[in-house]
Design goal:
7-stranded antiparallel sheet, 6-stranded antiparallel sheet
Length: 504
Amino acid sequence: MCGVVGIVSQSPVNLELYDALTVLQHRGQDAAGIVTIDEGNCFRQRKANGLVRDVFEQKHMRRLQGQIGIGHVRYPTAGSSSAAEAQPFYVNSPYGIALAHNGNLTNSRELKIRCEEAHRHVNTSSDSEILLNIFAWKLSLINAPEVTAEEVFEAIRGVNEEIVGAYAVVALIIGGGLVAFRDPLGIRPLVLGSRVSESGKKEYMVASESVALDVGGFKLERDVAPGEALFITPEGELHSAICAKNARLQPCIFEYVYFARPDSIMNGVSVYAARVRMGTKLAARIRRDFSHLDIDVVIPIPETSCDIAVEIARTLGVPYRQGFVKNRYIGRTFIMPGQKMRKKSVRNKLNPIPAEFAGKRVLLVDDSIVRGTTSEQIVEMALESGARAVYFASAAPEVRYPNVYGIDMPTAKELIASGHDASEVCRMIHADALIYQTLEDLEAAVREENPALTTFETSVFSGEYITPGVDEEYFSYLDRQRSDDAKADRAWNGANGDLELYNI
């Protein structure tokens, strides 16, 4: 999962891109990058591993000149964590294109062969660089002397015919403008916002979440539609077209469970309101199926589950307490690479308040249980703090299947619920009871905010993949790419030998 942003303004965009990436930091903590186009029609770039605040120093911000630009925060799934794979990526032909991507292409191996056949060199193992080269190749086939909206849309139609998977893309074209497009199923989010400049001209921003618009003073206009492409000129002329066949909205439901900020609106749904409804649904299940549990207090595992836990406590008529103090200088453990790092980070990230646990039957609430690493350690902390009993509630159903659309939910063997029922998982995390949300209730919690959302991408829960080509052979490939050992090897190689061949 990554975060992307693009801005077309009548004033410098460097600081606004920085601010937008800062509020999208929750979507990726591995690397960050910004590319702008200056008055001389040249790309200016800064990208590196690290948090936004660490990647961009004052000297870098001064160099990022221009009134149009894109930015990216990276959370690695495909590829490695080396600095060479930080985004945006760049190619010089045709025109000069820089591109950033959120999602994952499930046919990247075949696409890399297509790039080789088109004599386009891919310098990294990132599917985002492959996507850039496919887009550049399709644009070069048109062979137009100038960049126009229709030529860009024609190229994107060709891209959509070649690539399979999830993608929300922002790109810059020298002599053209800002391009944005979304996959035909709208799996990954992308929103459009606008504002009026002091001179009265329209300015635009596209971003992964609406919260990025808020910080820049942009008003949310709408979501970019599934299969839609936008082309915005430096003068602020907006062009749009549906560039995919059979486009329909089937967004990733895990965005609402975990990834998105609660103050964001995506696909017409308030993330906060959806999470409150998750709490309502889960409380109803506890009343119906777990009425024998004598719960003294409801305690969230901060922070995503806090809104859910408050609603559970309110509905059940049980006190709500903050039982853990979070170290806000530790990143999100779910998206940290490596099992050892994740285990170490849980204890560094959360510290219990013993008085809230001592002698009490505690209901711990989390957004989901993926590997089980965090859940097990948190239950242990609650017991060590004197809890009389520890019940565990998950706002999401059992995560049993790998994600292939841009979330680093690893191989099935690394998912605690894969091959285990709820009672077995309960024993494995040492809880006295375990309550999962049902998939039906989770979908209803989001759909009630926007009835037009008839279907979702729910593969991690259901095992149903909505794009072709996701089979056992592909999962074997994922096993090789996504295991912690494989990631460690790629990270070492990236740090000790990979060279980036361009530095704008």
